[in-house]
UniProtKB/TrEMBL annotation:
<keyword id="KW-0066">ATP synthesis</keyword>
<dbReference type="GO" id="GO:0045259">
    <property type="term" value="C:proton-transporting ATP synthase complex"/>
</dbReference>
<dbReference type="GO" id="GO:0046933">
    <property type="term" value="F:proton-transporting ATP synthase activity, rotational mechanism"/>
</dbReference>
<keyword id="KW-0406">Ion transport</keyword>
<keyword id="KW-0375">Hydrogen ion transport</keyword>
<comment type="similarity">
    <text>Belongs to the ATPase gamma chain family.</text>
</comment>
<comment type="function">
    <text>Produces ATP from ADP in the presence of a proton gradient across the membrane. The gamma chain is believed to be important in regulating ATPase activity and the flow of protons through the CF(0) complex.</text>
</comment>
<dbReference type="GO" id="GO:0005886">
    <property type="term" value="C:plasma membrane"/>
</dbReference>
<comment type="subunit">
    <text>F-type ATPases have 2 components, CF(1) - the catalytic core - and CF(0) - the membrane proton channel. CF(1) has five subunits: alpha(3), beta(3), gamma(1), delta(1), epsilon(1). CF(0) has three main subunits: a, b and c.</text>
</comment>
<keyword id="KW-1003">Cell membrane</keyword>
<protein>
    <recommendedName>
        <fullName>ATP synthase gamma chain</fullName>
    </recommendedName>
</protein>
<keyword id="KW-0139">CF(1)</keyword>
<dbReference type="GO" id="GO:0005524">
    <property type="term" value="F:ATP binding"/>
</dbReference>
<keyword id="KW-0472">Membrane</keyword>
<dbReference type="GO" id="GO:0042777">
    <property type="term" value="P:proton motive force-driven plasma membrane ATP synthesis"/>
</dbReference>
<keyword id="KW-0813">Transport</keyword>
<dbReference type="InterPro" id="IPR000131">
    <property type="entry name" value="ATP_synth_F1_gsu"/>
</dbReference>
C-alpha cells in the first residue's frame, strides 16, 4: 500500500514538473521569436559595416584614426564576454566557456568585461581579472554606450592592446555556436586571415576614404557590441526553449513509466487481496 502511495505521489510530481516546463517552453518560444527577429534584422547591417570598415582600413592612413593604430604591445588583451543571467539553457553557457578556455589557455595578459552573471561567475572561478561587469542593467543592450566608452578609453590610453568579443552566435533555433571576434584594433581582412570581402571591386569613394571612415567609426564599435548582444539573446531563448521541451518530454516519459508501475502494483495488491479472501473462505469451510 505504501508503495502505491509513493508511486502516485511521484506521478503527481512529474505531472507538475511537465506543466511548469511546458509553460517555460512557451514563454521562451515567444521571447525567442522577438529576439530572433531583432537579431536577424540587425545582422545584415552589422556584417556590412564590419566589412566596410575593414575594407576602408587598407585605404586610409592609420595615423589619422586612433582606432586603426596598433595597440601598445605592453597592454593587456580585453575580452568582452556575453553570456546570460539565468540558467536552464542546456549546454549553451558551458559550450561557450569551454571554447573560450581553449582559445585563451595560453593567454596570460587577459582582462574581461562581462555581460551576464554566468560569465562573471565563470571568470571569477577561473581566476582571471574581471575589469567590469554589466549584468545588472536590463536589457543588456542598454549597456552598449558604457561598454563602448570603457573599451575606447582603455584602447586609446594604451591599457589594452586588443579588444575581442566572445558570445554565442545564433544560427538557427536548434543551433548556436560560440564565436570569437577581434573588434579593436580595426584591421584589414588580410591581416586577420579572413580573405577578401566577397565581390569586392574597385569603386569611387566620395568625398574621400578618410571622411567616410570618420563617419563610420562612431557607429562601428557600438554596432558590433549591440549585434553580439542581440545574437546572444536569441541564442539564450532558443536554447531555453529546446531545454524545456526536452525536460517536458522527459517528465512525460517518466509519467508513463510510473503509471505502468502503478498499475502493476495495483494489480498485485488486488491479486493478494483475492488470494487472502479465497484462503480465508477455504479455512472456514
Amino acid at each position: 500500500m505504501a508503495n502505491i502511495k509513493i508511486i502516485r505521489r511521484r506521478i503527481k510530481s512529474a505531472q507538475n514538473i511537465s506543466q511548469i516546463t511546458r509553460a517555460m517552453q512557451m514563454v521562451a518560444a515567444s521571447k525567442m521569436k522577438k529576439a530572433q527577429d531583432k537579431a536577424l534584422a540587425g545582422k545584415p547591417y552589422a556584417d556590412k559595416i564590419y566589412a566596410a570598415v575593414r575594407n576602408l582600413a587598407g585605404r586610409v592612413d592609420p595615423e589619422a584614426h586612433n582606432l586603426l593604430k596598433k595597440g601598445e604591445s605592453s597592454g593587456s588583451k580585453l575580452y568582452i564576454l556575453i553570456s546570460t543571467n539565468k540558467g536552464l539553457l542546456g549546454g549553451l553557457n558551458t559550450n561557450l566557456f569551454r571554447h573560450m578556455a581553449n582559445w585563451l589557455k595560453n593567454e596570460e595578459k587577459a582582462e574581461f568585461v562581462t555581460i551576464g552573471k554566468k560569465g562573471e561567475s565563470f571568470v571569477v572561478k577561473w581566476g582571471r581579472k574581471l575589469t567590469a561587469d554589466f549584468s545588472q542593467n536590463l536589457p543588456f543592450a542598454s549597456n552598449v554606450p558604457a561598454v563602448a566608452k570603457l573599451v575606447v578609453d582603455g584602447f586609446m590610453s594604451g591599457i589594452y592592446s586588443e579588444v575581442h568579443i566572445i558570445y554565442s552566435n545564433f544560427l538557427t533555433a536548434l543551433k548556436q555556436e560560440p564565436l570569437h571576434r577581434l573588434i579593436l584594433p580595426i584591421t584589414t581582412f588580410e591581416e586577420v586571415g579572413e580573405g577578401q570581402v566577397p565581390d569586392v571591386r574597385e569603386f569611387l569613394i566620395e568625398p574621400d576614404p578618410n571622411t567616410v571612415m570618420n563617419s563610420l567609426l562612431p557607429h562601428y564599435l557600438e554596432n558590433q557590441i549591440r549585434s553580439a548582444i542581440f545574437e546572444a539573446e536569441a541564442s539564450e531563448h532558443s536554447a531555453r526553449m529546446i531545454a524545456m521541451k526536452n525536460a517536458t518530454d522527459a517528465a512525460l516519459d517518466l509519467m508513463d513509466d510510473l503509471t505502468l508501475q502503478y498499475n502493476k502494483a495495483r494489480q498485485e495488491k488486488i491479486t493478494y487481496e483475492i488470494a487472502d479472501i479465497v484462503t480465508a473462505r477455504m479455512a472456514v469451510e
